[in-house]
Amino acid sequence: MKVALLAHEKFPTRAKTALGVLRYGTDDVVAVLDRDNAGTTVSEFVPDVQEAPIVAGMDNLEADAVDALYIGISPIGGEFDESWRDDVRTALEDGCDVISGLHYFLSEDDEFASLAAANDCELWDVRKPDNDLAVADGVAGDVDADVILTVGTDCSVGKMTTTMELARDAREAGYDAAVVPTGQTGIMIEGWGNPIDRVVADFAAGAVEEMVTEIGDEYDYLFVEGQGSIAHPAYSGVTCSILHGAMPDKLVLCHRAGQEVIHGYESFALPPLPTYIDLYEQLAAPVCNAEVVAGALNTSDLDSDDAAADAVDAYGDTLGIPTTDVIRFETDHVLENLL
Q1: Can you give the pTM of this predicted structure?
Q2: How many domains are there within the chain?
Q3: Is the peptide bond between 248 and the residue preceding it cis, with omega within 30 degrees of 0?
Q4: 13 & 102 share domain
Q5: SS3 state of residue 170
Q6: What is the tens place of the pLDDT at every residue in 104-160?
Q7: What's the N-to-C CA distance of the chain in angstroms?
Q8: Are the C-beta atoms of 163 and 265 separated by less than 8 Å?
């Protein structure tokens, strides 16, 4: 399928969904939409993902060039930016499906719903959960697979990327591994999953458990995509639901190099890094014996590999566990602790 990725004014640093699809998706990305960077290419910003031109909008593409438009960004709160309306409208008028990970459901927008019906298009709101979810039974720990969960010091520190990279590297090493997607980006890449940050609170752990038990006896290892952070003032409930619903065996602690405060909530300082190990392990303890056995450091803000390597070493020394940057460096020594 040929797709375009909407990432206006956010590519690449705050367009993790667009980057995720570029890096891990199987679709052919025809273009990235970003008014600020129009006329450039993806490789000028990110060298290790699928190449594509960056254009100002859907009007810059031929009507039959794209099969689907992905909303490749999600602002805090997941609201729809009205400046995107022309691009979504053009996509639907051209017969393109539109896939969105926003909390704002495009299928409930009167204009978009009418255009989709008139042009035989699909509006897929990835964050719209199933209607038949239930509370957790506490049985995820009974599956045959070892369950590995990525957890973080904050949102947007690399949990999805770490999940995807470790699962891919495990498969390449000959292990039978699968991803359990819990957020919009993972769901778009994998084509299935439950959007845990949109599920009614009582059913959130159950939604994770349902996914783990659905495929847990088919694989040797499940890599569960984490969300949020247990220390986040707004999103800690999602983190706890995934931790208890997945009942993981092992945890990977993800962090962004140099970050000292919660993004978007800068009055809240991050706790000392070793504190996170105690927080996650003690919170998991009533339902499972999960241990933080590896770390992943996002060094994308550091220019040189030498500086990144030093930061990874310091992160590992601080936590006392094997660590890496899953994009910049090898994952072998981390996988040895996980598999």
Answers
A1: 0.91
A2: 2
A3: no
A4: yes
A5: helix
A6: 999 999 999 999 999 999 999 999 988 889 999 999 999 999 999 999 999 999 999
A7: 34
A8: no
